[in-house]
Design goal:
The complex is a heterodimer of chains A (241) and B (822).
Chain A: H1 3-26, H2 30-55, H3 58-88, H4 107-110, H5 119-143, H6 147-150, H7 152-168, H8 172-194, H9 199-227
Chain B: H1 4-24, H2 30-53, E1 58-62, E2 71-75, H3 77-101, E3 125-127, E4 136-138, E5 140-149, E6 156-166, E7 175-176, E8 182-188, E9 194-196, E10 200-204, E11 213-215, E12 222-224, H4 252-255, H5 257-272, H6 279-297, H7 305-336, H8 341-348, H9 353-370, H10 380-386, H11 389-414, H12 420-443, H13 447-474, H14 478-513, H15 524-527, H16 529-542, H17 549-564, H18 570-602, H19 609-612, H20 619-637, H21 643-653, E13 661-663, E14 668-670, E15 675-677, H22 679-701, H23 727-737, H24 739-742, E16 745-752, E17 760-769, H25 772-792, H26 800-821
Parallel strand pairs in B: 4-11, 5-8, 6-9, 6-10, 7-11
Antiparallel strand pairs in B: 1-2, 3-12, 5-17, 6-8, 13-14, 14-15, 16-17
Helix pairs in contact in B: 1-2, 1-5, 2-3, 2-5, 3-5, 3-11, 3-14, 3-20, 3-21, 5-6, 6-7, 6-11, 7-8, 7-9, 7-10, 9-11, 10-11, 10-13, 11-13, 11-14, 12-13, 12-18, 13-14, 13-17, 13-18, 14-16, 14-17, 14-20, 14-21, 16-18, 16-20, 17-18, 17-20
Classes of the chains: A mainly alpha (241), B alpha/beta (822).
Keywords (chain B): Cell membrane, Membrane, Oxidoreductase, Transmembrane, Transmembrane helix
InterPro entries (chain B): ComplexI-like_HydComp (IPR052175), NADH_UbQ_OxRdtase (IPR003918), ND/Mrp_TM (IPR001750)
Domain NADH:quinone oxidoreductase/Mrp antiporter transmembrane (chain B): 277-563
């Protein structure tokens, strides 16, 4: 792979990564969010693969394959199942016939209807956070400027945007998506800053994420069973008053 | 052959073994196993300390024992002195502890006072409610309440109560701890039967609604009227005695697995702290000492709620001190370019005066807080009384010493002395706490609290000596500095001996009666003659009068200060006379304090039933106290034995006085000033004088004068124990004299009957002597803190999004600061 192609591919993958994070903020449909997350996972795997091919470290390709399977396949599948459990789930008591109109069809659960911060403000904030990430990463890039480290601010920006998704979205599924975006950002930062990580480390991190998503999945189901919805603002018991 | 290394190794091994034995041994042998190991550990410490005082040195570096820095130990004569003192106190306290934790004593019997619990209709209900309703009274004082019940059934209940102590709250009622002289007269008008509780003490019911909380030796006593005709409960004559130990088993906590496992570790930490020779080792051992002592203070937390409070104070103050110490020593190590004490010594000279001053002030504040010096003493009068008594002895006689050790080690040795203002600061703190401590001790009527305040006073005297030594050294008079330092060190040794003995004796009293309140003790000389005698030996040491051991060191200290008048400088010309005055005043007050403790506590007639039923302690406890008493006697009669070792210890700290202090067994001679003292001859002369006086008094008696006549009692009937002096009444004149300093708080509440303003229903008199420094210095900080905390609660609304937003905001702020600040 030529140096120019390597840089182009790396920048493309990083751009997709960041774009996906922004789209997560933009879109309200939860099913779309899950699809975007899968694309983001694929972009992350692509980063690892491009790095591996460029530096001829075949271990990184294994890591890339693992990351791709987990983040573009398994995790979105789990989330889709969590979404699907809502519509035909046995845990959900079927609503009375009178309410089964197409307009009442559990709209609030399929969409992020009332985000804490509205979409326009979210996009502006994401832009500001990206700027901040670029500003904050300058000294890091200056240490050793290569194409990979020049893309480092993208990882940082994805971390910040993911965190912001956690703050700005109400639904439990949106929260999980935000958490995974944040984690994708951390992983991307690790790839870009350290030119890839050893498979054993990535294996541990991946299991961690998988476990977290499974636990969140269970929690989401329980929340729905208890409250009939997954609005996090219903959980206000733990306050110090 | 250097015995220090093997002795320290043996001590460490025994510490581990004792801890394991305490944790694993069955309950029956647990105190014995742990106690024997602890005693052996102490003996090893004495051996190591004695070898170091004899002139040998020891140093070792164990790089594998601790990551990064390794453990560095070094023992010189200064460490040796503190090692030997801690070891000796540990031996005695361990032997005492075996007896203390053994079953037996009054407290394994059912709680006293199963007397007739009055079923008098229309009687009244005595409540220990804090008069300030929900306020927090703290201090020493007495209160007086008179209550009248409206007419009810027949008969008459009359109770004159002595000091009074309420049950700890059974459900959020009023609670009092550690009461002082309070006096209550309850007069139930026609009630059922007649009970006369003269000399009795009342156990009050917790007041149903009064959320008052009295802490400390404060007393308040209220007699509440029951509604006429209501089934009020009468409590008084022969009624329930509320004691400080409602569960009735003070030794239960110390017998537990945890406490027995921690005790050997605490003793080991006490030995090893002076042997540490690098910042990391020192801090680690210091923290181990603080944590283990905290756990031991909390040993009896199930028995009294005040223990938890004391533990909280102790934990907060000791950890704040640790933070200061960490900052100070960390700065020192960073600037000196190494963390071993040898590096610090080498690097100290090259540091700027500002850094040296900062290091000294930070570490001195931390160390003087550990030593219980005045502005930072608040934990001491709380934690020492609440700890099990042999732990109190260890803390008061060995742990607080290490505060002094720290000041000497850092100020004199590592920093190599400093400008006069350091030492003026130190002398001022010492003088303040000497006078303030002994004044509070004079007001205290809780026996162990009294001893704790006296610890604060004695440490103040020691620090005055250390400060004077620093002043002399800054002025260039090395021999005089060495003399002052030797006097301070001798006082450390003496104080350890008599204070350990006094705390152990107080523990025996506590174990036998369940009482710490001097107002309710009395008459113990007849019931516990050995304990009374041992307490008298300790008290003699504490009053700084000739036959006692405290006299020698205070005499030496005064000699050093008086001869320091010749040292040029305005500061010394002002400070030294003041210091002499402070020492004289504190010595005089100490005499009053210990006359009170001994006279009111042990002589006269018992003023409460538990005191009247006291029994002598088991042999192990007496043996432990006997060891300490023997130590006191040796120190009192032959202080010259310590002359050489003290000079070596002072030289190890810095001032190269050489042979300014010499002792040849029975005498103490000061080469520098040509003064000398022969304590043995002083004691013999005193004994001869007392014998002669007693003989002269008997001479006229030979003529056969009639001696058995009854005194005219002013028509008032036979004198009762209630007429004897209590601790509160004994201290009352002193309280008047020092009215401006102590600022006692006095309240009189008169409640008239509803029908007429002229008929008094209730008069309540209350007097408290609060710890003034605490009120002025600590209370504002605490209220500000709790106010801030209450405001901060609004941040936690329960919204997950808000919490996440805090996180994001924090992260973004950090990044922004990095961007701007780069």
């Amino acid at each position: 792979m030529t140096s120019g192609a390597y840089t182009q591919l790396l920048d493309l993958a990083c751009g997709v990564l960041l774009l996906c994070a922004v789209v997560v903020l933009w879109q309200r449909e939860l099913a779309v969010l899950v699809r975007v997350l899968a694309v983001q996972g694929a972009a992350l795997a692509a980063i690892a693969a491009v790095l591996g091919v460029h530096e001829r470290r075949w271990g990184l390709l294994v890591v890339a394959a693992g990351v791709g399977v987990l983040r573009a396949g398994v995790l979105p599948y789990l989330l889709r199942r969590a979404l699907g459990a809502r519509t035909g789930g046995a845990a959900d008591p079927p609503p009375p016939a009178a309410y089964r109109s197409p307009y009442r069809e559990d709209v609030s659960e399929a969409r992020e209807t009332r985000p804490v911060v509205n979409v326009a403000a979210s996009l502006v904030t994401a832009a500001l956070l990206t700027l901040l990430a670029y500003a904050a990463a300058r000294p890091l890039v200056a240490l050793h400027p290569t194409p990979a480290t020049r893309a480092l601010p993208v990882g940082l920006a994805v971390v910040l945007v993911g965190f912001f998704v956690l703050v700005a979205r109400r639904r439990a599924i949106a929260q999980v998506v935000g958490f995974l975006t944040l984690d994708n950002g951390i992983t991307a930062t690790a790839f870009l800053a350290a030119s890839g990580v050893p498979p054993i480390v990535e294996l541990g991190v991946s299991f961690d994420v998988l476990l977290a998503v499974l636990v969140l999945h269970v929690l989401t189901t329980r929340m729905r069973a208890a409250f009939g919805g997954t609005d996090l603002d219903d959980l206000r018991e733990l306050s110090d008053r | 052959m250097n015995a220090i290394g093997p002795a320290l190794a043996v001590a460490a091994g025994l510490g581990g073994a004792g801890s394991l034995a305490g944790a694993l041994a069955p309950a029956r042998v647990r105190p014995l196993a742990a106690g024997v190991c602890t005693a052996g550990l102490g003996a090893a410490g004495v051996v190591a300390g004695a070898a170091a005082l004899g002139g040998s040195r020891y140093g070792v570096w164990l790089p594998g024992l601790l990551p990064l820095a390794g453990v560095r130990l070094a023992v010189d004569a200064l460490s040796g002195l503190f090692l030997a003192v801690a070891g000796a106190v540990t031996v005695a306290a361990a032997v005492y502890g075996i007896g203390y934790a053994s079953p037996g004593g009054t407290h394994d019997q059912p709680p006293p006072g199963a007397g007739p619990d009055g079923a008098s209709p229309g009687g009244h209900d005595m409540a220990a409610a804090s008069p300030s309703g929900g306020g927090h009274d703290d201090g020493v004082g007495g209160s007086f309440g008179v209550g009248h019940a409206s007419p009810g059934g027949g008969g008459r209940g009359d109770a004159v109560g002595g000091s009074f102590r309420g049950h700890p709250s059974r459900g959020g009622g009023g609670r009092r701890d550690a009461g002082a002289g309070s006096f209550g007269v309850g007069d139930a008008s026609p009630g059922g039967g007649r009970g006369d509780g003269a000399g009795g003490s009342f156990g009050g019911h917790p007041s149903p609604g009064g959320g008052g909380h009295d802490d400390g030796a404060g007393g308040s006593f209220g007699v509440r009227d029951a509604s006429p005709g209501g089934g009020g409960r009468r409590d008084g004559a022969g009624g329930t005695y509320g004691t400080a130990y409602p569960g009735g088993r003070p030794a239960q906590g110390i017998r537990s697995r945890g406490a027995q496992a921690v005790l050997p570790l605490f003793a080991l930490a006490l030995l090893l702290v002076p042997a540490a020779a690098s910042v990391s080792t020192f801090l680690l051992l210091w923290e181990l000492m603080a944590l283990t002592s905290l756990l031991l203070v909390l040993a009896e937390h199930r028995e009294r709620p005040s223990v938890g409070q004391a533990g909280l104070w102790y934990a907060v103050m000791t950890q704040l001190g640790f933070v200061l110490l960490l900052a100070g020593l960390g700065l020192f190590a960073a600037r000196a370019g190494g963390e071993s004490f040898a590096d610090l010594r080498a690097g100290a000279a090259g540091m700027s005066p500002a850094v040296r001053g900062t290091v000294f002030v930070a570490t001195a504040a931390a160390f003087t807080s550990k030593a219980g010096l005045a502005p930072l003493h608040a934990w001491l009068p709380r934690a020492h009384p609440e700890a099990p008594s042999h732990v109190s002895a260890l803390m008061s006689a060995a742990m607080v010493n290490l505060g002094v050790y720290g000041v000497l080690r850092v100020g004199f040795d590592l920093l190599g002395g400093g400008p006069a203002w350091w030492w003026l600061l130190l002398t001022a703190a010492g003088g303040l706490s000497a006078v303030y401590g002994i004044l509070q001790a004079a007001m205290a009527s809780d026996l162990k609290r009294l001893l704790a305040y006296s610890t604060s006073e004695n440490m103040g005297l020691v620090v005055v000596g250390a400060g004077a030594a620093g002043l002399f050294r800054a002025a260039g008079d090395e021999p005089l500095a060495a003399l002052a330092l030797a006097a301070a060190l001798l006082h450390v040794v003496n104080h350890s001996a008599f204070k350990a003995l006094l705390f152990c004796a107080a523990g025996s009293v506590l174990r036998a009666t369940g009482l710490r309140d001097l107002d309710r003790l009395g008459g113990l000389r007849a019931r516990m003659p050995a304990t009374a005698g041992l307490f008298a030996v300790g008290a003699l040491g504490a009053v700084a009068l000739p036959p006692g051991n405290g006299f020698v060191s205070e005499w030496l200290l005064l000699q050093a200060l008086v001869h320091g008048f010749a040292v040029p400088g305005a500061a010394t010309a002002v400070v030294l006379p003041l210091a002499v005055a402070v020492i004289a005043l504190s010595a005089g007050l100490a005499a009053a304090v210990f006359v009170k403790a001994l006279g009111v506590g042990f002589f006269a007639r018992p003023r409460s039933e538990p005191a009247a039923r006291a029994a002598e302690s088991p042999p192990a406890m007496l043996a432990g106290m006997g060891l300490l008493a023997a130590g006191c006697a040796v120190l009192a009669l032959a202080p010259g034995l310590l002359g050489g070792p003290l000079a070596r210890a002072a030289a190890a700290a810095g001032p190269a006085g050489g042979t300014s202090l010499a002792g040849a067994g029975l005498s103490v001679r000061l080469h520098h000033t040509s003064a000398s003292l022969y304590p043995l001859w002083v004691a013999l002369a005193l004994v001869a004088g007392v014998a002669a006086a007693a003989g002269l008094a008997r001479l006229p008696a030979r003529r056969g004068r009639r001696r058995d006549a009854r005194l005219w009692d002013c028509g008032g009937g036979a004198p009762t124990p209630r007429m004897a002096y209590t601790a509160t009444s004994f201290a009352e004149p002193l309280q008047r004299v020092f009215d401006d300093v102590l600022a006692p708080e006095q309240d009189v509440h008169v409640t008239p009957v509803r029908e007429s303003a002229y008929l008094v229903r209730r008069v309540r008199f209350q007097r408290l002597v609060p710890d003034r420094i605490e009120h002025r210095l600590y209370l504002p900080v605490l209220t500000a803190l709790s106010r801030t905390a209450a405001r901060a609660r609004h941040l936690a609304t329960g919204s997950v999004h808000l919490y996440l937003a805090y996180g994001l905001f924090g992260l973004v702020t950090v990044l922004a600061v990095l961007v701007v600040g780069w």
